[in-house]
Amino acid sequence: NIVIIGNGMYATGRGTDAYGTILPAVFEWKRFGSTIEKLVIVGTNGKHSSQAKKKVKELSSKTGIFIETEVYPKEGDVNRNAYKEVLRAIEKPACAIVVVPDHLHYQVVSDCLKAGLHVLVVKPLTPTVEEGRKLIDLANANNLYCGVEFHKRYDRSNMMMRDTYQSGAIGIPLYLIVEYSQRKSIPTKMFQEWVHKTNILQYLGIHYIDIVRFVTRAAPLRVMALGQKTWLQDHEIDSYDSIQCIVEWETSEGDKFTQTLLTNWIDPETTSSMSDQKIKIIGTKGRYEADQKERGIRLCVDDSYLQQPNPDFCMSYKDQNGNSNWQGYGIDSIVDYLNRVTDFVENDMNINNIDNSSRSSFEESLISTSVLESANKSLNLDGDWVVVDNR
Fold this sequence. Notes:
Layout: E1 2-5, H1 9-12, H2 22-31, E2 39-42, H3 46-63, E3 69-72, H4 82-89, E4 95-98, H5 105-114, E5 118-122, H6 129-141, E6 146-149, H7 156-166, E7 173-183, H8 185-190, H9 200-216, E8 219-228, H10 231-234, E9 242-250, E10 256-267, E11 275-283, E12 287-291, E13 315-318, E14 324-327, H11 329-346, H12 362-380, E15 386-387
Parallel strand pairs: 1-2, 1-4, 2-3, 4-5, 5-6, 7-10
Antiparallel strand pairs: 7-11, 8-9, 8-15, 9-10, 11-12, 13-14
Helix pairs in contact: 2-11, 5-6, 6-12, 7-9, 9-12
């Protein structure tokens, strides 16, 4: 049994014509022979539960794959603690995939760990180091295999950057620049209910904080951040339009370099892609640059604006039988975790004997959380440098 806790855009595609990323990934996992006895989707509103049930039915029709599914709370009910009742009532799931707002990560993941579930949670692990450490201790004490869904580690563009850097071709790193932004509909529509509890760096920029760790294996030293509240504030939303953040990192050889992150989520709705994302790393021998919005495809049709779809993240393709299958690094991230949990359970493995240093484990993901917490402190200090807690 697998339980998905959270029933929003990323989990099931709520509010869109698509199916999110988590749900198609579970279907793809079953496609290759994995055994799922039951999938349980838990949200907080029964109205959304019925929509999730419809999405599952449509996916079954498109993919030719059937998964027995239950949804909670039931239609007509509103229950913010529905997931707790599910954890108590249903036959113990093998794992939980937690897809809830950032500020709820600690409580929901903690409850899952106490119930003895292996957990995959969407990024960030937690907004604070203290909460993250508590979850790590709880997971280790219960011998549970846990991870954070940092899917950009599976993007071939970032994997090529890692391999190029680690081959020594770029030389000693000097600086990195990241530009990452999304459309205004994300804070104003998709996350309207809880946008004031997060910010653009925490929701989006965290990916490329993790990628620097993934590529260089460096440790963060100190952080400074500045932000602007203009357009969103004019629309009665108390969140930053944009955040600019500088992180100083140190490699295992003692070389220091900086990362500059430029983030916003007030791009026009007419922009050609949901995400505009670029990264470059400059070293003493060369540079690696990746425009990860420019995937080489442009689509322009009547009654629509120019589109630049990303074929590499989470895309549906039809096979020779006409059935849809989902491919991309968003799918790979979740399928890989489910495979590893299966291996962990079936081989009765011990968490202390697993090297998680190269994977987005809770321990590894605490590094990006430590940068995030320092950045949030710096924002409150009007851009002062804040030393990162690397204990």
